[in-house]
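Re: the multi-chain job from yesterday

Posting the exact lines I submitted so nobody has to dig through the queue logs.
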Amino acid sequence: MSYKGFIAVLDALIALIMLVMFTTIIFSQLQNLPSLNEALIFKQGYDILSVLEYTNFSDPQAVFFETSGPLCMRLELYNGVASQKTGYYVKSGCDYNYVNEKTIWRTYVVEGEFKTAKLAIWMKE
Amino acid sequence: MGKRFKDWKNGRLCNCFSGHSKKGQTYMVELVFVVLLASILAFILISFFSFLVKEDIKGNKPYITVWGASDVLLHSTGFSPDWEETGNLSAIGIAYERNVLADPKLVFLSSVSAEEISRLMHLEIYNVSIELLHEGMVYYQFGSVGNSTQIQQVERTCVSSNGTPFLLRIRVGGNE
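And the result, structure tokens for all chains:
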């Protein structure tokens, strides 16, 4: 009888520990996604793309210069179906890429032709 | 549940619990105990995480507020939309379209006091400074952070109507 009781208590303990573990994992995930900084990086990216689009992507480096210091970015320009790269720019002082970079795509029209821009953006470490 | 059965030894009916129902009752009590413990534990964990999330939001509140203000500035015309012509200004927005600066609005803002800037951005409890920079030089400056010590800063990219890119720097400090 006491052996059974021991098993039952052990079951209950394991169940409780698992509950704590799963609750911790779920809430950690809920708390982390999406993080504030990630959301704000995307906002910055949309700002930069809007400015680039207004200036017809004529001088991306000049636009990059007017971005926040800790931000790094890389711009790739493609034709309408993104099959051929037509331009490539990296903000000066930044590496080529970063593992946690966020990517934003935008399609725009130049002289009646569709073009595609890809902006990869990340925070300098 | 009590179970009535015949006590053959004494030849009379006995009203008592059988061993089987006792076990069932014990398991039931254990189950209720475990469910209660789990509920209490889950409640404590949920409260704890909710508290952490709230604290995080509270801690970031001034920073989020500045971001909100910069959104209104850069993505709207303000209210009324033609306030630079009518002078009827109740909320500041300095763009004709998304991220494209409206020069007449900037000219008008140059004559607005720092206190008015804070009030019109609905950030009365803060000192607000707005700067527009190009190649590191300040072209426009409105408002001031005064002697504030705890300053939150947000930098956004925008462009003037003639295609010159600018860096918008909003700084907000406590209004002690």
